[in-house]
What does this fold into?
Amino acid sequence: MASSFRVCRMHMRGTGSLLKRIQIIDTCLQRRIVTNVVEPSNVLKNEENGEQEGWKAFDAIQLERQEQAERSVLISCHSKTNEKKFLKYLSIHGDIKNSFFYESYGTYAVVEFANQESIASLHEAVNLPVVSNESVVPFKSRLLSLRSLGAAVVPNSQTGPKCKPQATIPLTELIQRLSKEESIDHQVTSLMKAYQVTEENTRLRFLVCSLLKDIAAAYFPECNVRPFGSSVNGFGKLGCDLDMFLDLDGISGRNVAMPKAGLVLEYQMKRSNSERAVTQSILSVVGECVDRFGPGCVGVQKILNARCPLVRFSHQPSNFQCDLTANNRVAMKTSELLYLYGCLDGRVRGLVFAVRCWARVHSVTSSIPGAWISNFSLTVMVLFYLQRRATPLIPTLDHLRSLAGPADKSVIEGNDCTFVSDLSKIQPQDNTETLEQLLCGFFHFYSTFPFARKSINIRKGKEQTKPEVVPLHIQNPFEVSLNVSKNVNAAQLERFVALCQEGAWQLEQSATLTRGTGHAPSPWGLAALLVPAAGTPGIKGRKKRKREPASERIKSLLESLKNKI
Ligand code: GTP
Ligand code: MG
It folds into this structure.
């Protein structure tokens, strides 16, 4: 198995001899080398010895995380709660496997019991809240509050529990941190350490899904609620939204073959004229339930006429912005594909992270829907660019499809979503570029990309003739007749291209700077790319960058491109 021979490849300055040795081993053994930019949070750890178990398939991770979440509770408690006594108090219901505290509209604890029975035992012991002048909806969930009455059972400590951060550090601090690094490769590693969804944040995301499942299960006891998108695809940043999928496919009897003859009993069910109408009515009812009975769920909006109907709300205890969809299996498959690409080589995650972060700072992307490029489209653009390197860093989707086994076969609503799920079946690529080269190359690539004529296509790994007149055409990987960036207008695309030109120019300037020296070095490399344009508030004490007029910068960039050619 290739994964058992995985070696960390460190494309970083100052690691020359180590890198050479690793590369020799790599060439000799023809085995996969993966850049260990930062250990991804969604790779489960071996809890006994604290070591990484290695790569796990997407579905296996989902199952384990869901099972973990079902044994967990979320408890609001006092900010000075004595952690040790708190856990001792809870342990009367069974062994506690894991726990952590965090702050969000108060202090919360996530407690994972070793066994499912502990949840039942806890439910037996939990009281209904006593409220005066109000009434409560008696819906029992795993979101609880710890109160101390009279002589406190759980005395508070002086300092309170140590809380795990669930939000990113401020941009100013990030820029300072990155400026001290000695290479762009180190800067990307540092960025990921600071911004990537953490182990605890992943647990919390699955727990919120599990709490939602308890609500939906009132109507559909066999349902499942699964996270998708950046919560699980390996490209998630702390604070990203929580995309959830209400999965009713697992309902027993759905795929049972009808006997050819004899008696058969079947359920009487309401019928609707389309799958979409069914999805809308299910989401409408579940959304109503979330609104009226869901503890901690506020600001519920039912957006049922969207292309993909959804229920949007804030989950206050976790501070997650949630989007609940149903019948969205293609998006789930897309998340798995992105996860697989991210696992193929650590540089994929590093580059996607750097580009997504840069794009957010310069408002190329936004959390508000509009005529701009979405994070998803941008991720596909990065993947396409990596397929288009002289030595491709990742294979095409068609190639991944050709490696698929019978168990990988997947057709969703007539769309072929088949691709290999076993990482060890994918031949490693020979690309040895550093993240610095790749980042610089990304900006060059899209500075000169023929957007007017060509479409971006990760299935083929080659630009295709644009099938329709739109500013930006990115073929949907699975629903191939769709353009994932059809919302993007010409002005936003032009802005993106101009910012790519500027990014390439900035990185070339950085190449001549002394890096990461002094007590407070000025932003360089990736840090310089993350400095918002002049006039954007928020960068305290930042020295104004001396800027040449844009035309000069573009001229110098074109010169350098010409020289390169
Ligand atoms: P952030 O939430 O911005 O961090 O990234 P995200 O990848 O989660 O994007 P978003 O929440 O917008 O969408 C969630 C997931 O839905 C994506 O990861 C894709 O799998 C899928 N998705 C989003 N937009 C499209 C689209 O236009 N077409 C298709 N097929 N899938 C999409
Ligand atoms: Mg998302």
